[in-house]
Design brief:
7-stranded antiparallel sheet; 6-stranded antiparallel sheet; globular
């Protein structure tokens, strides 16, 4: 028995959380014009899924419309909160400069769904009426810490630009954990082709919800990729086709954009705790 316990203690860090979280369900919210709310019907499979909402607004003024709250009108009674650091706004120009000023806002919110959801009705409440609002949701499985699912180091990567043609770029993108699900969101003030990060393997990025565009004024892309090593990237450019990497692809002149990067943690044990300590809980974070 003692030998078995010692063997288990040595193997535990490698057996537990040895893979990145995975996307199990996705969907789109109902895009709308001139409203202060957005409806999202969420259906998930299985238990203990992290449901993430990615919301983008475009407002034809210098005042960005942010997310005030997300409420659950269904029977689950869930209360989503904003992901750590996962919100960015900018007053810029959109649609080739035809919309000036143009305020863009991009945010990620999340909630734990302990049980499966069936068309659970969520309402995204904005700070005021927005010219355009779009969004999507994603259910993620195998997140290590469902009470704090994000690798907070990775939410630092957010930049914006507008006015002249430029390449959507994430800043210094550094993760703390090995087995993470990397998430890149990009919103552009024009309906155009979606964007994929130019690091790791371009073709291994997968669209979370399908690319969302509405009218000619806004487009939202979310790409995800599971990794098994910590990441340290500086100035990550985005591109619309693989042949444009690693340099990236410029937006059209006069199209503002926002880029936001996060990561969901799949390994909170192996990097900080091993062997006898894992069994005894000594020195483990």
């Amino acid at each position: 028995m003692i030998r078995f316990l010692l063997t288990l203690a040595l193997l535990w860090p490698f057996a537990a959380n040895a893979a990145a979280p995975t996307v199990s369900n996705t969907g789109q919210c109902t895009s709308a014009l001139g409203v202060s709310t957005l409806a999202c019907a969420v259906t998930t499979t299985g238990t203990n899924k992290i449901v993430s909402f990615t919301i983008a607004t475009q407002n034809t003024s210098s005042t960005a419309r942010t997310v005030s709250s997300i409420t659950d009108a269904g029977g689950a009674g869930l209360v989503p909160v904003q992901a750590p650091g996962a919100g960015i706004s900018a007053t810029t120009v959109c649609l080739g400069g035809a919309i000036n000023p143009c305020s863009l806002n991009l945010e990620q919110w999340w909630v734990l769904a302990p049980t499966a959801l069936v068309a659970e009705a969520f309402t995204v409440n904005l700070s005021g009426s927005s010219t355009v609002v779009i969004g999507g949701w994603r259910a993620t499985a195998s997140v290590f810490n469902t009470a704090a699912p994000y690798d907070t180091n990775a939410t630092l990567a957010a930049k914006n630009s507008g006015g002249s043609a430029s390449i959507p770029t994430a800043g210094n993108y550094i993760t703390s954990s090995t087995d993470d699900l990397l998430v890149f969101d990009t919103v552009v003030g024009r309906n155009q082709t979606g964007w994929v990060p130019c690091f790791l393997t371009y073709t291994n990025w997968n669209a979370s919800f399908a690319e969302i565009s509405f009218t000619s004024q806004i487009e939202l892309t979310e790409e995800v990729q599971g990794v098994t090593a910590t990441q340290s990237q500086s100035g990550v450019p985005l591109a619309t086709v693989s042949s444009s990497c690693p340099g990236g692809t410029s937006t059209a002149s006069g199209d503002g954009w926002l880029s936001l990067a996060t990561a969901m943690n799949g390994n909170g044990v192996a990097s900080t705790c091993s062997g006898y300590k894992a069994l005894k809980g000594v020195g483990c974070k």
